[in-house]
Amino acid sequence: MSGSGKRFLAFDLGAESGRAVVGLWRNNRIELEEIHRFPTGATEILGTLYWDVLAFHRALCDSLALYARRFGRHLDGIGVDTWGVDFALLDRTGALVANPVHYRDARTEGMWDEAFRRMPREEIFRRTGIQFMPFNTLYQLLSLVVKRSPWLETAHTLLLMPSLFNYFLTGVANAEFTHATTTQVYDPREGKWSEAILTAMGIPRAIFPEIVAPGTILGPLRQRIADDAGLDPVCVIAPATHDTASAVAAVPAAPGDDWAYLSSGTWSLMGIETPEPIINQAALCDNLTNEGGVGRTFRFLKNISGLWMVQECRRRWAKEGREYSYDDLTALAGQSRPFAAFLDPDAPLFLNPDSMPAAVAEFCRRTGQKPPETHGEFIRSILESLALRYREVLDTIRRISGRAIRTLHIVGGGSRNRLLNQFTADALGIPVVAGPSEATALGNVLVQAMACGELASHAEGRSLLRETLTLETFEPRDTARWDEASARRQAVLSCTRG
After folding, report:
1. What does the buried/exposed string (b/e) look like for 78-105 if buried means 16 or more CB atoms within 10 Å of the residue's CB?
2. What are the pLDDT digits (tens) for 187-240?
3. Would residue 258 show up in a list of annotated catalytic residues for this protein?
4. Cβ of 320: how many Cβ atoms within 10 Å?
5. Is the bond into 436 cis (omega within 30 degrees of 0)?
6. Among 85, 130, 131, which residue's Cα sits nearest to residue 107?
7. Residue-by-residue DSSP string for 178-190
8. Do 265 and 220 fall within a single domain?
9. Parallel, antiparallel, or unpaired for β 17-26 and 29-39?
10. Shared-domain flag, residues 210 and 150
């Protein structure tokens, strides 16, 4: 790496907020500075949840202007990453058919049954290697087919979310590999959209664009946008555009296969890197997934409903007049009674309830448990249940992959939750290495740097992170108590899974 002082702008759009983060290469270090943050939550109109993508694009353009005022006209690259599965449709003129619909919208209800009627569940998995989640792109599209939506009849091009913003910025329409793999209509063995699935579901193949690799230079920022922002010409680069793929790209792991990762945020994504997808009966039965990574790797992983439950408890209590910071909630949890209740974070009840605390209490009643009594007990029960769920998933990954995983790297915003990190080390019985918290932005910048020749390889980028980041290791302790808690949790949850 040259350490030449180049600057890259990473746009990282999540389910709660979007950020513009400047990545500066200086003295063989990567320095990040957030220059803009903006809301990205859903907008409900007449019972449908939408993404307000035009407002998001405006926020991206505002961020470019903020960058120019702060750093000047020169910028070496722009990269966008977002959450997975959602998409926009463009008509033949290149205009939006409608605002994209949020993955938590109810339109996919009943679509599993319809999909499996058209193609067996086993065949869908064999062709895609993707776990079954009700909001996958496949089922969103199938809902349009079933309802004979005029949107699909009008559609000329489908763009996944980061590709939509890249299209707004450059006029170039395509799909990037790591994001394409999340749709459950991509065949990783053939390396292309699955003709068989699209035909069976009645989804038009013609709307699916070309797939490009992470690190592809898409083209220059549109002149009008650059002029309005006060920027010189700058390239827009496709990083690993799926936010989890960017986060995993920044895992500061040494070479070898004895580590796993946990990208911790609204969702928790736990998995390993593999050179080829793992598509077999065991992976199907345990609903694991194979999503694309940097360097044509695959992320063999499991989606777990992460800190979403904490976020929703906080939001509900704020509505009721009790404001907490996340640090406040963690402190309360640390002082509360351990193992007050055992929860299944992935239970459908927790997907999008009106009140998360009420949903937790209802889950406890359904499973014969006494609900938590204090706000601290609610949060501690959630965090402990997450750690025990991580243990369950890691055991499954070990069994299916045959790997002896001896270290877990936790990256993303959730890596700042020291209490959850310690719970996780205790529950898993292995060291947990926490950091970087800004993994998604770092991974975005790393891939941009690779595209521009600043890094020779992904391995070099990870080596740089190991040498320069401040990481914290949590050693397991009191594992016997967590072994006992795991057994108790299994007994409690067996009635809901049986």
Report:
1. bbbbbbbbbbbbbeeeeeebebbbbbeb
2. 999 999 999 999 999 999 999 999 999 999 999 999 999 999 999 999 999 999
3. no
4. 9
5. yes
6. 85
7. HHHGGGS-EETTT
8. no
9. antiparallel
10. yes
The residue segments making up the domain with residue 203 are 7-238
CA 329/CA 339 separation, integer angstroms: 16
pLDDT of 3 over the 60 cut = no
Structure tokens at 128: 């895609």
Q: Percent of the chain, pLDDT > 70?
A: 98
Of 238, 268, 296, the residue at which a domain comes to its end is 238
- 407-417: per-residue pLDDT in tens? 999 999 999 99
SS3 call for 317: helix
* CA dihedral sign of residues 485, 486, 488, 493: positive
pLDDT digit string (tens) for 281-326? 999 999 999 999 999 999 999 989 899 999 999 999 999 999 999 9
Please identify which of the residues 81, 86, 243, 344 carries the catalytic annotation.
243
Strands 77-81 and 235-238: parallel
Q: Could you give phi then psi for residue 49, rounded to 5 degrees?
A: -90, 125
